[in-house]
UniProtKB/TrEMBL annotation, chain A:
Protein name: Gluconate 2-dehydrogenase subunit 3 family protein
Domain of life: Bacteria
Region (Disordered): 158-193
Residue ranges with Polar residues bias: 175-186
Automatic annotation (TrEMBL), chain B:
Molecular function GO terms recorded: flavin adenine dinucleotide binding; oxidoreductase activity, acting on CH-OH group of donors
Biased composition (Polar residues): 455-470
InterPro entries tied to this protein: FAD/NAD-bd_sf, GMC_OxRdtase_N, GMC_OxRtase_C
UniProt domain Glucose-methanol-choline oxidoreductase N-terminal: residue ranges: 142-318
Organism: Nesterenkonia salmonea
Residue ranges occupied by any Glucose-methanol-choline oxidoreductase C-terminal domain in the UniProt entry: 404-520
UniProt-recorded name of the protein: GMC family oxidoreductase
Length: 193, 536
C-alpha cells in the first residue's frame, strides 16, 4: 500500500496533541457559543477522538480531515480567525470527516452540564422536587391565561358547508386504487363522440 | 411491584402467576397502551393472560432525568430501515419511530394529551370524499360505539378537564402559548385534556411539574400502564408477565386458527407458548412485522393478510414543531411538557386547502434533544443561535391527521438482519400533498401565535421520528379493505386480534393513546363474552 507509506501519520494510532487542539478549534468554530467555557469543547473533542480510535475508518477519516484543514488554511487551521475558519469548514461540510465530527458533537456537546448552565437549563429536577415550588409558572411578562375551554361554547367539528365544497385534489396523482371507487378527475379530460 | 424483578428465569413469568407453556392461553404480545390495558381488563374479569413484552421491566426508580441516558435506557433501538421522501428517512435513517421497548410500552414516554376523535373522523371516506392517492376508508364503528369506552378510558387515565378532574395550572410555556392563541384569535385553548394529575387521584399524586414526561414520570403523576394497569393486573393473581420476550412468529393449526406464539428470551432461546387467543399489540411497526414473519403456505402473504393491507396505510400524524424566541425568559422546560392545547384548527374545513384538521400542543425539549432535533444536520452560527435562545424559547407541536396511503407501508427488509437473524422492518413514507398543505398551514398558524405575543423570531422544526404509529392492520367492514373487523378481530383468523394503534382505519387529529385504550377496553369486553360463549 503506497498511500500509508507515503503518509506515515495516517498509521498513527494515537492522535497528536496538535490534532486534538485543531479538533477543539473546529468545534469552537462549528458550534460557537460565547457563553460556553472550554471544558465542554475539550470533552467533546476527546469523545470524538475516543470514538475514532474504535473504528479504523473513522480514525483514517479524522486524521486525513484534520490534516486537510491545515492544507486548506495554507498552514495552521488554528491560526485562522473565526470567519476564515468557518469558510474552510463550509468547504469540507460534505465530507465523511466533518459529518462524523458534527454528529458526534451534536450528541455530546449538548449533553453536558456546563453547556446546560451556559444556555440556562437546569438539568435533572425530580431530585429537587420538580418546579412546582421553583418557578414552573414564574413568567410575569404576560397575563395569566385561562386554563379551561371557554364556558358554554362547543369546539366546532366541521366548517359550515364543509361537505358541499369541491374536494381537494392531489397534484400529479396516478391511478385509482381499488379502495377508492368513484368519479376521477380524468373523467372530465377526454370527450369522445 | 416496586422493584424490577429481573432475576427471573429468561422467558418466564416475573409475577407470582405462571402459566404452563403447553396450556392454551390468552397471549397478549406487547404491554403498552393497547396490550397493557387488555391485560388488566381481562384479568379483572377473571381471565388469566400471558403477556409477552420485548423490553425489560423498568420501574419509576429506574427512570432518569436525562434525555440521552433515558433514551438509551428505554427507546426501541433495534435496527430498522427507512425509505421514501419523508425527512425522517434522511435525518434518522435507522430510527423511523421514537417509541419505548419496556414494560408499559410507549405509555412510559408519552406526555399525556387525551383529546377524543370527532364523530366525522370515523367517516373520513364519506366526509372528506375522494382524495386522490389516499386510501381513505370509513371505520366500521363510529363515535357512538366508542363514547362509553372513551368515558371509561378517561376515568382510568385521569384525564383533566373531564369527569370532574380539575385542569392543570398554567406553566411558563403555556402562558406564552395561550396568550398568543388569544391574541391570534383562537378560542379553544386549555391545559388539557391531559392524563396527568393536577391533584391526587386514583392513588397517584399531583404533578410536581418536573418537566420530564418523555423520560418516564418518576413521580407517578402521569398515567401509564406501569403505574395503573400492570400492578392491578398482577394483583388479580392472573397475570403471567414475561419481559425481555420478543414474539417472532404466530403459528396456526390445520384449521387456520392461531395455536401458539414463538418468542425469544433475552439470551436468544426460542420458546413456544400455546395459545387459544392471540392479541397483537406490538405497535404499528412490529405488529405488521410479526404478521408478515408468520407467513405460511396457507397464509403466503403473511398471517391475516388476504387483503394485502397488512403493513399498508402506515400513518404517523402530520407533526412538526414551531419555536418562538422572545426577548424575555420563558423557561419552557419547567413543568408539564404537553399541558397546553389549541383546538380551533382541529375541525374539518376544506376551505383551508386540505382535508382534516390539526391540534397545536405545547412541547419542550432540553438542550440535548433540542440540538439533535431542532434542525437535523445543521451546524454553524445559525444553528447555535437557536440554542443560545434556549431560555427565551417557547415551543409547540403540530399533531394533525395524515392521509392513509397504500404505498406508505411497513415491509420486511430481508437484506438487513437484526441480532436474532430476522429481517428488520423497513418503513416507507411519502408525505401526501394534503399532509404538506396542512403542515404549511399549521407552521404558519404557530408562527402567528408566537408573533402575536412579540416573538423576535420563530423556527420550524421538521417531524421527529414517529411516536404516533398507526394504521398497518386497519379495521374495515369488508375483509378485502382491511385486516381486522370492528372488534379488532382478524378477518382471516378467528382467534387473532390486533389491540394497538395498528387497527386505526384513519388517524384523526387527536393524539392516539386515549383511543387505543378505549378500543382495548371495548375489545376486552368482547373477548370475554366470546370466551364465555365458547365462540373463540
Amino acid at each position: 500500500m503506497v498511500f500509508p507509506a507515503k503518509y506515515p501519520s495516517l498509521n498513527a494510532t494515537e492522535m497528536t496533541e496538535e490534532a486534538r487542539q485543531t479538533l477543539i478549534r473546529v468545534l469552537r468554530v462549528a458550534f460557537p457559543h460565547e457563553s460556553v467555557p472550554d471544558g465542554p469543547y475539550e470533552r467533546t473533542a476527546d469523545t470524538i477522538l475516543t470514538e475514532a480510535q474504535n473504528e479504523t475508518w473513522f480514525r483514517v477519516a479524522l486524521t486525513q480531515g484534520l490534516l486537510s484543514l491545515n492544507q486548506m488554511a495554507d498552514g495552521d487551521f488554528r491560526t485562522l480567525d473565526d470567519e476564515s475558519a468557518l469558510k474552510v469548514l463550509r468547504r469540507v461540510e460534505g465530507t465523511e470527516f466533518f459529518g462524523f465530527v458534527r454528529r458526534t458533537a451534536v450528541l455530546n456537546l449538548y449533553d453536558d452540564a456546563d453547556v446546560w448552565e451556559a444556555l440556562g437549563y437546569e438539568g435533572p429536577s425530580f431530585e429537587h422536587g420538580g418546579y412546582i415550588n421553583r418557578g414552573f409558572n414564574d413568567l410575569d411578562w404576560l397575563p395569566d391565561p385561562r386554563v379551561e375551554f371557554p364556558v358554554g361554547e362547543t369546539m366546532p367539528e366541521m366548517a359550515q358547508g364543509a361537505a358541499g365544497v369541491p374536494r381537494p385534489v392531489a397534484e400529479g396523482h396516478t391511478t385509482d386504487s381499488t379502495n377508492q371507487p368513484g368519479a376521477t378527475s380524468s373523467d372530465m379530460e377526454e370527450v369522445k363522440k | 411491584m416496586t422493584s424490577a424483578p429481573e432475576n427471573g428465569t429468561p422467558g418466564k413469568s416475573v409475577t407470582s402467576q405462571s402459566i404452563d407453556q403447553d396450556e392454551d392461553a390468552v397471549v397478549i404480545i406487547g404491554s403498552g397502551a393497547g396490550g397493557g390495558t387488555l391485560a388488566y381488563e381481562l384479568t379483572a374479569k377473571g381471565i388469566p393472560v400471558v403477556v409477552l413484552e420485548a423490553g425489560p421491566y423498568l420501574t419509576h426508580d429506574d427512570y432518569v432525568n436525562n434525555e440521552w441516558e433515558s433514551f438509551n435506557q428505554m427507546a426501541w433501538l433495534d435496527p430498522r430501515t427507512t425509505s421514501g421522501s419523508w425527512r425522517v428517512a434522511r435525518d434518522f435513517p435507522n430510527l423511523p419511530a421514537w417509541i419505548v421497548k419496556a414494560v408499559g410500552g410507549t405509555t412510559t414516554h408519552w406526555s399525556g394529551a387525551t383529546p377524543r376523535f370527532k364523530e366525522h373522523e370515523f367517516k373520513t371516506r364519506s366526509v372528506y370524499g375522494r382524495v386522490d392517492d389516499a386510501n381513505l376508508l370509513d371505520w366500521p364503528i363510529g363515535l357512538e360505539d366508542l363514547a362509553p369506552y372513551y368515558d371509561r378510558a378517561e376515568k382510568a387515565m385521569g384525564s383533566t378537564h373531564v369527569h370532574g378532574r380539575p385542569p392543570l395550572p398554567a406553566n411558563n410555556n403555556y402562558k406564552v402559548f395561550a396568550n398568543g392563541a388569544e391574541r391570534a384569535g383562537y378560542k379553544f385553548y386549555a391545559t388539557g385534556p391531559y392524563a396527568t394529575n393536577a391533584e391526587e387521584y386514583d392513588g397517584r399524586p399531583a404533578s410536581i411539574q418536573d418537566g420530564f414526561n418523555f423520560q418516564g414520570d418518576k413521580n407517578r403523576s402521569k398515567w401509564s400502564i406501569l403505574v395503573r394497569e400492570m400492578p392491578r393486573a398482577e394483583a388479580t393473581g392472573l397475570l403471567d408477565l414475561r419481559p425481555d420476550s420478543q414474539a417472532v412468529q404466530i403459528t396456526h393449526d390445520a384449521e387456520g386458527r392461531a395455536d401458539a406464539v414463538l418468542y425469544l428470551d433475552k439470551e436468544g432461546n426460542l420458546h413456544r407458548q400455546a395459545a387459544k387467543v392471540v392479541c397483537v399489540a406490538a405497535n404499528s411497526i412490529e405488529t405488521p412485522r410479526l404478521l408478515l414473519l408468520s407467513a405460511t403456505p396457507r397464509f403466503p402473504d403473511g398471517l391475516a393478510n388476504s387483503s394485502g393491507q397488512v403493513g399498508r396505510n402506515y400513518m404517523r400524524h402530520l407533526t412538526g414543531t414551531v419555536w418562538g424566541h422572545f426577548d424575555k425568559p420563558v423557561r419552557m422546560y419547567r413543568g408539564e411538557t404537553m399541558a397546553g392545547l389549541i383546538g380551533d384548527e382541529s375541525l374539518h374545513d376544506p376551505d383551508r386547502g386540505f382535508a382534516g384538521g390539526y391540534y397545536l400542543e405545547t412541547i419542550s425539549l432540553g438542550p440535548a434533544f433540542m440540538a439533535a432535533f431542532v434542525e437535523p444536520g445543521a451546524w454553524g452560527p445559525d444553528f447555535t443561535k437557536l440554542l443560545d435562545a434556549y431560555t427565551n424559547s417557547a415551543g409547540m407541536w403540530i399533531v394533525g391527521e395524515d392521509m392513509p396511503q397504500e404505498s406508505n407501508r411497513v415491509t420486511l427488509n430481508t437484506t438487513v438482519k437484526d441480532v436474532n437473524g430476522l429481517p428488520v422492518p423497513n418503513v416507507h413514507y411519502d408525505d401526501h400533498p394534503n399532509d404538506v398543505a396542512m403542515r404549511e398551514h399549521a407552521y404558519t398558524a404557530g408562527e402567528k401565535v408566537y408573533g402575536a405575543v412579540g416573538a423576535q423570531s420563530t423556527h420550524r422544526t421538521p417531524p421527529y421520528p414517529s411516536t404516533h404509529n398507526l394504521g398497518t392492520a386497519r379495521m374495515s367492514e369488508r375483509r378485502e379493505d382491511g385486516v381486522v373487523d370492528r372488534w379488532g378481530r382478524a378477518h382471516d383468523v378467528r382467534n387473532l386480534f390486533v389491540s394497538d394503534g395498528s387497527a386505526f382505519t384513519s388517524g384523526a387529529a387527536a393524539n392516539p393513546t386515549l383511543t387505543i385504550v378505549a378500543l382495548a377496553i371495548r375489545q376486552a369486553d368482547y373477548i370475554a363474552e366470546e370466551l364465555k360463549a365458547q365462540r373463540i
